[in-house]
Amino acid sequence: MEEQDVAAQDPAARDRAVTATQDGAAPRSAAATRGSARSEATKQRLFRAAMELIGQRGADGVTVDEIAAAAGVAKGTVYYNFGSKNELVEQLLRYGMGLLMERLDPGATNDGGEHPPSSAPLADMRGRIERALGFIAEYPAFVRLWLGEQWRADGAWQELLAGMRAEVLAVIGQAVRRVAVERPLRRGLTPEGLAVALFGASFVTGMDRAAFHPERTLEEATEAVFSLVLGAIESQP
């Protein structure tokens, strides 16, 4: 009865209720919205705590109790949100991958298709390298987790990690091929091979900077990795 009175006094509220009913969805209450926000905030705390702990010690070296304590929540909250530690790690990897791809390929279309080639492929490539290194500086724990699990033969997330690697290499390879259209690669080099080299160089350079040489600037690290691209293309006549 109270909802009917509110709708009668507020035409806009009535219209929203009608639209929601027509769309087959009930209007969300303020309490439900607040509850959703709290749930998302809890997940973010768990993500950050797990990323830091697992990035330092590996998934096998961290317990659910430790993740819960670091996030400031009860142990049951971890299971409520993720079901298990393995599921938490899987979602953590997917979450971090999403952040990385936003940096690495911000111009990608929503349907997964290719975006129009850049008018300056070399500048585009340099920008991608810089953004990737910036991501590594911002999320070193995630990168440690990824690299720590990537080459484990008995890892629980090998299929997911292989897909992540392939997705990143596909984006880098696409950028390399755009460069090669304008500036051919040196004889014996392929876009796929150069993409792997850039992938490895970016991660190693970024993590070395984060762990041992924080005094090195992002520009210096970017130029070091970008030099692989410059060395791989034919000199202009």
Commentary on this structure:
The protein is mostly helical. The protein is built from eleven helices and no strands.
What is the approximate shape?
Answer: elongated
| Secondary structure tally: strands | 0
Q: Report the structural category.
A: mainly alpha
- C-alpha Rg (nearest Å): 23 Å
Overall pLDDT confidence: 82
Task: Compile the SSE list and pairings.
Elements: H1 2-9, H2 11-22, H3 30-57, H4 64-71, H5 75-82, H6 85-104, H7 121-138, H8 140-150, H9 158-182, H10 191-211, H11 218-232
Helix pairs in contact: 1-2, 3-4, 3-8, 4-5, 5-6, 6-7, 6-9, 7-9, 7-10, 7-11, 9-10, 10-11
Question: In a nutshell, what does this entry contain?
Answer:
With about 240 residues, the protein is mainly α. The chain contains eleven helices and no strands.
Distinctive features:
disordered N terminus; mainly alpha; 73% helix; single chain; 237 residues
